Every structure is written in structure tokens, then in C-alpha cells.
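Re: [ENG-882] Designed sequences occasionally contain unexpected residues at chain ends

Forwarding the minimal case from QA. C-alpha cells:
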């Protein structure tokens, strides 16, 4: 059961007096996503990771409240991904100094060996849900990582401005432009399908994941069909 289905079923169970069985079935069987409406198609960008996988890229920013609400859903979705599908996180820059600092912090933590699952959700929580002023620059983030993950601030600063991180930040910005991303969060499937948030609220975020899920399954089906078609052609030639 995908995330959108699970969410709607839970609503139905909590409010049976308002939702009939027919209305629930209609809600959990959404119309097939349509190109140009639910997602855009762009010129394919080569895979960032393994070309053998169906690659999903999330373009996000730690200064984005919508990304903060989206992150727990993506975390749950990622844990259930089938073999042959990989998720890559791509911090957006958008020519914004604070967002560039967030991107540097993301890659610096990666370089210094802090697993993403340890800091990703926590950083969103720190910025938006703890009632504290949001982190704004690399110095503040360095102190945060030192206090939270015992990374020495000077070492963190050094990593944040290293050649490796500088290259990653520039590539992240370049890829977001090639994907034609103008807002966050945005999901890209197989380097060519771009799924952006349309509307507001939790349902709009779940719709992004439902569309992403559909496109992933379609790409997996294409990969599975490829070897079978080649095998049939080989058999015909042999005959």
C-alpha cells in the first residue's frame, strides 16, 4: 500500500460517518498521473549514482518549511523502496547565501561520515519545530553539528569549504538548473520526470510521492520488460 493510500484509509477509519465505502475506494484509486499536469518531462540528465538503478532525486532545502513537512514522508517511503531503486538528496542553492550554507553543511556532514538518517530530519526539526531561531550561516551550523554530533567546529568549517564540497555544491546547483527546478521539494525520477508540489497542505505533498511512486514502478516495469523483449528477438533469430 503506497503512502497516499495508507493515509486515506486511516482517515476513512477515523471518520466512517462521513465517508462511504464507494467514496473511500474512489479516493484511494486516484487517476493515473498525467504528463504536463502531474509531472513534467525534461531532457534526460545522466544518473548521479548508479545507472543500473531507477534513480530518484529529491531537490530540497533546509530553509524550506514544505521540505520540513515532506521529509518524514520521504523517510518512510525510502525505507520501503524495492531493490533497484535509489534515492539521492540534492540540496538546492537558488543563489541564496543561506541555502548555499545549508548545502555546504549537508555535504560537509557527508564528508565527515555523519549518516544522513542521523541529521536530516533532526536539522529540519531544529530549524522549524523547536521554537528556536533558524540556523542561517555556516558558522551557526558548525556550532550545531559540534554540539549535536561532536564534530569539531574548525574541522566542520574546513570540510564545508574544501574542494570536494565546493564541487558538490556547484554540481548540485547545476543539476537543479538542468532539471528546471524552481521550487522545493521537487522529485526527479530517472533523470527526466520532474514532480513538483501543486497546491498546499499534506495532501499536495502525498500527491507528489504518489506520482513519484507511479513513475518509479513504470520505470521498473520497463527495465523488467527489456530483457524479455531481447530474449524473444533472440529466439526468433535462432528459429
Amino acid at each position: 500500500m503506497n503512502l497516499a493510500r495508507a493515509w486515506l484509509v486511516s482517515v476513512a477509519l477515523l471518520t466512517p460517518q462521513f465517508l462511504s465505502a464507494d467514496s473511500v475506494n474512489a479516493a484511494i484509486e486516484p487517476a493515473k498521473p498525467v504528463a504536463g499536469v502531474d509531472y513534467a518531462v525534461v531532457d534526460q540528465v545522466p544518473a548521479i549514482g548508479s545507472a543500473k538503478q531507477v534513480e530518484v532525486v529529491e531537490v530540497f532545502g533546509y530553509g524550506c518549511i514544505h521540505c520540513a513537512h515532506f521529509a518524514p514522508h520521504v523517510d518512510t517511503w525510502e525505507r520501503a523502496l524495492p531493490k533497484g531503486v535509489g534515492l539521492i538528496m540534492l540540496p538546492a542553492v537558488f543563489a541564496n547565501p543561506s541555502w548555499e550554507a545549508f548545502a555546504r553543511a549537508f555535504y560537509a556532514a557527508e564528508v565527515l561520515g555523519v549518516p544522513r538518517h542521523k541529521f536530516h530530519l533532526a536539522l529540519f526539526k531544529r530549524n522549524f519545530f523547536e521554537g528556536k531561531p533558524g540556523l542561517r550561516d555556516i558558522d551557526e551550523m558548525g556550532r550545531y553539528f559540534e554540539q549535536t554530533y561532536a564534530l569539531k567546529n574548525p574541522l566542520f568549517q574546513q570540510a564545508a569549504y574544501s574542494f570536494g564540497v565546493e564541487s558538490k555544491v556547484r554540481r548540485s546547483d547545476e543539476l537543479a538548473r538542468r532539471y528546471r527546478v524552481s521550487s522545493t521539494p521537487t522529485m526527479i525520477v530517472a533523470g527526466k520526470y520532474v514532480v513538483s508540489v501543486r497546491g498546499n497542505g499534506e495532501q499536495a505533498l502525498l500527491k507528489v510521492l504518489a506520482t513519484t511512486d507511479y513513475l518509479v514502478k513504470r520505470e521498473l516495469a520497463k527495465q523488467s520488460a527489456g530483457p524479455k523483449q531481447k530474449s524473444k528477438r533472440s529466439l526468433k533469430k535462432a528459429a
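QA comment: On inspection the terminal residues look reasonable. Residues 7-28 have pLDDT under 50 and may be disordered. Proposing we downgrade this to a documentation issue.
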